[in-house]
Amino acid sequence: MRTDRREALLKIAVGVVVGLFVIDRAILSPALSRWKRQGERIAALEEKVKRGRQLIDRESSLRGRWEEMLRTDLADDLSTAESDVFKAVARWSLESRVGFNSMTPQWRPRDEGSEKLEFRATATGDQASLGRLIYEIETDALPVRVEECELTARDAKGKQLTLAMRFSFIRLIAAGGSAR
Question: Helix or strand or coil: residue 102?
């Protein structure tokens, strides 16, 4: 009789273990997995809501900045835009007392909402004048960005420098014309 009782207890124990295993695989693990995914989704949505609230709080400053970007954007007409750019380059050259040795402009499509006028240029001068040139470029009202800049000494003391740089202007466009 003891053996029968032991066998019965072992059968019950095996049944309980198999039942727990089936419950874990069929119910608990999928539920925990869904719960974890739902928690991650909720966290991502909370982050989006937080970012959206921050954007709403900064809406007026962002709109003001966007209006400023549209106001200082390059002209709709390509020749007028290039003329504005060359006037700015001449102004930088005059303000910094630096002459450009070479300058190569090239229009490049960027994405569907903008175009980029890219320049590769070299200029010579001393450290102060080349620094002033970079300052003039970076603080100009036109949408310009210095993308690459390399200084090379032309003499042993480093008083004469050559600046090789790549800078670009951006022009916002909408379907069929400028964003203005």
Answer: strand
